[in-house]
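Hi, here's the filled form for the chain we discussed.

Project: internal
Contact: R.S.
Residues: 301
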Amino acid sequence: MANALLTTSVGSLPLLARGKVRDIYAVSDTPDADLLFIATDRISAFDHVLGSGIPDKGRILTQLSLFWFEFLRELVPNHVVTAEVDEFPVALRPFQEQLEGRTMLVRRAEMFPVECVARGYLSGSGWKDYQATGGICGIPLPAGLRESDRLPEPIFTPAAKINTGGHDENISFATAVETIGEKHAHALRKLTLAIYTKAAEYALTKGVILADTKFEFGLIANRITLADEVLTPDSSRYWPAEEYRPGGPTPSFDKQFVRDYLESIGWNKQAPAPALPDEVVTRTRAKYLQAFQLLTGRASL
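And the returned structure, exactly as it came back:
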């Protein structure tokens, strides 16, 4: 198993952002220059990047996003220019080994400050909201639903980074309208639910339940465009259909092994974040890879 890539370096290219997983560079100093999205093998839990990475995680996320961007191409445009390193600017050729398989050259978009969440099942923060209010983000739901139950129909529950901690916080549709305007809010809701429905129907044919997911959209030439990543285990709650049992938590294709380990050692969820034992790294990598293999039908990256 290869070593995990935790930091990136691509010469003199301007680093615009270093997120929990992705490093974003501009390919030149011009304001409208394309962007380089590099998915590292970093992994976060409880809002902290951990001291260990998951080998190949960045490649899995990138290749799965590329699969879904292509799958959804007729439904929504996306920001990808190319993921072929040979087609990147010449200045990036010396870094080919680092970039291969985990990098996308994308168009710069004017991003909407609202994350577009679609939920088809009752889980996560949606379950907590339902227990407290009988609905999610102000959307009333039938009484008596259990954790992990399928909802009567998929719902749009936007989120925004509106508190001082920078965490995503569920907001009402009315707040989304106030934030981005009625026209765009309605368009994003319709598009989010259409993408979710198409992806969920496909995933189910592969034995995978797409319980919920979040999308990020922006404007490119005044056209709503799907950006960032899409439908990966980092942004989506995937469940193995054969293990689905409503009425409690459901096993998922994500970093649950990581969360469980951190809870077991009594970490106070403050920096510095601990490293992970090899067993947890190996099992987490296997879950990400299994999701990739089931959804794409590809045996290897």
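Let me know if anything looks off before we file it.
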